[in-house]
Amino acid sequence: MPSIALFSFVVYLLLVASVAFLAYHYTKNLSDFVLGGRKLNGPVAALSSGASDMSAWLLLALPGAAFTFGMNQIWLPIGLVIGAYCNWRWVGAPLRVYTEMANDSLTVPAYLDNRFEDKSHAIRISSALATLIFFAVYTASGLVAGAMLLQRSFGLDFNTALLSGTLIIMAYTFIGGFLAVSWTDFFQGIFMMCCLLILPVLIVIDLGGFGHVLQLLQAQGNGFLHPTHGMTLLAFVNLMTWGLGYFGQPHILVRFMAVKGVKDIPVAGRIVVAWMSFAMVGAVAVGILGAAYFSAGQINPESVFIEFSNVMFSPWISGMILAAIMSSIMCAI
Q1: Each residue of 227-272: pLDDT tens digit?
Q2: Which of 90, 92, 150, 301 lies 20 to 30 angstroms, CA to CA, from 212?
Q3: Measured between alpha carbons, how far is 227 from 279 in angstroms, rounded to an integer?
Q4: Degrees, nearest 5: CA angle 4-176-29
Q5: Is 297 left (phi over 0), alpha (psi -120 to 50) or beta?
């Protein structure tokens, strides 16, 4: 059975690699490599933004948080959806217009430098350093997530898994650039959402229906299903303000810069908000149902989605899901 999952995993990654080589043929200059030539349509920009933003966090960390703490984690997705909507509503169109007007800036540091005509380049250097420092930590967490995925799924030791994942990510991004990331994000975003919506239904059926599931969850404690259980004002504000990060995340802002035109921004904004809402509801549901399905200490909370994919799906589908998680890590980095 693991060999079938491994074969499916490899086939999926080969398909991703083929997309990277296809994107390579459409990449003629630096603008194509960095921004896809500013030719993304609304749906591709929206789902690539969502998949890149959520990455492995959506499939590993969010279900794990719901599995551990219960329904009070629902405020985090709500805060993210509000933040994403405001970002697309107020930042998307102006950034698309002015980055092109400001000497066709291809990056956020270059845009700030050109927009404010900074002859000293202090703005460009400081913003580039901030991106480098904080994204080094972000990238490191993504590499660790990829290593953990390969380690838990195929029994590799951590160092081997880390090296393998890093090499896959480097090859993929260097060959295909921004177009490869955006195209694969679009399809994998649909795949991820479908998995997160179908999986809770299969779990409920396997557990004998919603009534029995409710009984099992009530056994976790009266507060497990209560959205305000154990919440302090500080904890509530902390979860709800996660969405503020969208206004400064370069891998989100770059999607605004890459869209074909301003008219595509509102369409993309509605799509990404809908996608995030459905996907994160599914992720929270997977975590909540995990508490009913697995006994305490039986699994690592962050692996609840992986464990369910192995139990509920065939090895073929399970291997594809594992590859989708790995691909989402690749695209986020």
Answers
A1: 998 889 999 999 999 999 899 888 899 999 999 999 999 999 999 9
A2: 301
A3: 19
A4: 170
A5: left
